Amino acid sequence: MSEQGKLKDLKARIEGVDLQDAGAFHEIVGEGMLLLRLDDTQLARQFDMSRPSVNRWRSGRNAPHPSIRKHVYAFFKKKVAKLIDVKRDDDDNDIVTKALPRSSDRPSVSARGR
Q1: What is the Cα–Cα distance from 76 to 78, expressed in whole angstroms?
Q2: Residue 100 per-residue DSSP state
Q3: Is 37 exposed, middle or buried (0-12, 13-18, 19+ CB in 10 A)?
Q4: For labeling, which of 26, 27, 45, 97 is most exposed (least CB within 10 Å)?
């Protein structure tokens, strides 16, 4: 599966997750960290947690209260959605670039008449 497909799959899983399901939490955290290229320390800083706590989340040894999971899921969903949009823009970039006039075709500031 392409990275774009993995991102879309993760976003769909987050949107449909049961906050009470601690097993899904560690899977989503692990996959999200991998796709977003985050390490334990980076995610810990994001939530003002210790690195060992995040390590326990990722490994499935522990999971935070469902009210905290909600915030973690929202973080991953936002980051994943942003990456999906960036990758979609990259795919469309060739079309957009061809539609834009070259800088030599654009009028200069002085030609526009201030």
Answers
A1: 5
A2: S
A3: exposed
A4: 97
Measured in whole angstroms, the distance separating CA 30 from the mean position of its chain's CA atoms is 13
Query: What distance in Å separates the CA atoms of residue 113 and residue 92, rounded to the nearest whole number?
Result: 33
Tens digit of each residue's pLDDT (9 = 90 or more) over 36-55 = 999 999 999 999 999 999 99
What DSSP assignment string belongs to 10-34?
HHHHHHT--TT-HHHHHHHHHHHHH
Question: Model's pTM, two decimal places?
Answer: 0.74
CA distance 39 to 15: 23
Question: How many Cβ atoms are within 10 Å of 69's Cβ, its own excluded?
Answer: 22
